[in-house]
Amino acid sequence: MASTPKPPPEDFAGAANDWDLERLYQKLAAAKKEWAPHKKSGLTPIEKLHLRGLLCGYSPAVIAKKLSIIPRGLEADLCKGLYRYVEILTGRPANTLSNWRDIIDWLDEAGYKIGPARRCQDWDGAPDASVFYGRTGELETLEQWIVRDRCRLVAIWGMGGIGKTALAARMAQQTKDKFEYIVWRSLRHAPPLNELLANLIQFLTNRQETDWPATVLGRVSRLMEYLRTHRCLVVLDDWQSVLRPGQPAGHYLDGYEEYGELLTQVGESSHQSCLLLASWEKPKEIAVLESPTLSVRSFQLEGLGEAAKEILREKGLSEQERWEELIRAYRGNPLALKIVAATIQDVFAGSVSEFLMKSLYLGDFEYLLYQHFKRLSELEKEIVGLIASRQPLSICQLREEMQLEGSAELLKALESLVRRSLIEKVKESSGTLYTVQPVVVKYVSNQSPRR
Ligand SMILES: Nc1ncnc2c1ncn2[C@@H]1O[C@H](COP(=O)(O)OP(=O)(O)OP(=O)(O)O)[C@@H](O)[C@H]1O
Ligand SMILES: [Mg+2]
After folding, report:
1. In this structure, which residue's CA is closest to atom 16 in ligand 1?
2. Which of 48, 281, 371, 412 sits CB 3.0–4.6 Å from 249 for a disulfide?
3. How many whole angstroms from 334 Cα to the centroid of ligand 1?
4. Is residue 175 part of a domain?
5. Would you call the peptide bond into 7 cis, given omega within 30 degrees of 0 as the criterion?
6. Which residues contact 356 (CB under 8 A, 6 or more apart)?
7. Cβ(165) to ligand 1 under 6 A?
8. CA of residue 125 to ligand 2 center, whole Å
9. Are residues 222 and 258 in the same domain?
10. Within this chain, do residues 139 and 47 fall inside the same structural domain, yes or no?
11. What is the pairing mode between strands 424-428 and 431-435?
């Protein structure tokens, strides 16, 4: 019986679009001679094939799958061969190549990449990050995750005004030379995913793409193709705008669920790019996929701390000895501090102590808190109200106060409130206690008479 013809093997020819392959084959052949003088000179066709696969942005596991070979065997061949040649070619000590993606970075740095538009940037709506205080630790962490660890999906989440957008913009500015493409988009007006994808693909193809898929799924896989073949940084700000109010944190608006699938794809598939998102709430996909050792990570952004003094200095406030108190009261939230600093300047001629004699003042920050509260379920509002009036409270105390039978609903609501940055946890020897920050206490008490 005639056997079915085998499909043509994958040859990763696309690598030639972006890489000077002939020069690389030659230089790597010379490195091979240095590494293993006894071996046949020149790269073998199999070595060239594996190199092209890696340069297309495929991991060894994906290459093995595409070539129907055993992954462990391929890894062993790479470790004995190509990885060592690349180290020699790029002047690195032997055995320092720890991640297959280093191949792309190192060869790019060494100038083997070709193509007309090596660096394209679109900062639509990104703030100017030139005036930026503190956050050294956060910037280091982000750089470690995005540049050194090659994380594919990173989220910064935290309360409004805490500085997520400013930090993301600073980070993107600081690392822009490490990426071929940088694109910044805000989701503030909740664009349907199909539109956002069309927009991103347009940018990544330098507006040359005319024949793109009509379906969201097709567009996601087209985007993934670019994320795999190019090193891109895609920043999506205001992610909470596609999340649904009134539901536990991290769920999507009706018709926007595919945003969650985009996150899963970006977090789970192999590619060489990074999606950095900023949100009031931690998306549920991030909570599921993240791990300190994997390619999906996130952190909750907290107040500015000591560096917030620069904001007060900029505003010309006096009585520096009271600044720390002021910063603590607003938990170092830069937006809140900017708002109250303007009030202190206008109403108290810059005197912080006169201002601190009054009860906590929210000013325009109250509207931001109103927007946060609007997103809560009735149960979440009740919990925040209780904690605000009797804090700190444990789960047992909350259950008693609310006269709830079981803990399941309460746990779900507490998890949601933590993911919305609206409650804080304090570890005590007796267990975890929950508190809310002073601005939230003030907001709740401002609302009470009207209820
Ligand atoms: N590190 C910083 N140094 C100086 N100014 C800062 C810093 N971080 C934030 N700011 C300023 O504080 C204000 C609020 O910051 P930002 O817009 O980044 O907050 P956000 O967390 O993105 O808020 P939202 O969630 O409402 O979008 C802005 O005016 C910003 O310029
Ligand atoms: Mg923002």
Report:
1. 163
2. 281
3. 6
4. yes
5. no
6. 322, 325, 326, 329
7. yes
8. 11
9. yes
10. no
11. antiparallel
Question: Do 137 and 276 fall into the same domain?
Answer: yes
User: Is the CB of 334 within 6 Å of ligand 1?
Assistant: yes
In this structure, are 193 and 279 located in the same domain? Answer: yes
- Residue 267 Cβ inside 6 Å of ligand 1? The answer reads no
Last residue in a domain, options 42, 76, 109: 109
How far is residue 142 CA from its own chain's centroid?
8
Digits of tens for pLDDT over the chain (451 positions)? Answer: 444 445 556 789 888 878 889 989 999 999 999 999 988 889 999 999 999 999 999 999 999 999 999 999 999 999 999 999 999 999 999 999 989 999 999 998 898 987 654 568 888 889 998 899 999 999 999 999 999 899 999 999 999 999 999 999 999 999 988 898 999 999 999 999 999 999 999 898 876 767 778 899 999 999 999 999 889 999 999 999 999 988 888 789 999 999 999 999 999 999 999 999 999 999 999 999 999 888 999 999 999 999 999 999 999 998 999 999 999 999 999 999 999 999 999 999 989 999 998 889 999 999 999 999 999 999 999 999 999 999 999 999 999 998 887 788 999 999 999 999 999 999 988 889 999 999 999 999 998 765 4
Residue where the block lists tokens 């092209």: 52
Cα–Cα distance measured from residue 187 to residue 238, given in angstroms and rounded to the nearest whole number: 5
The protein residue whose alpha carbon is closest to atom 25 in ligand 1 is 160
pTM: 0.79
Measured from the alpha carbon of residue 368, the closest ligand is 1
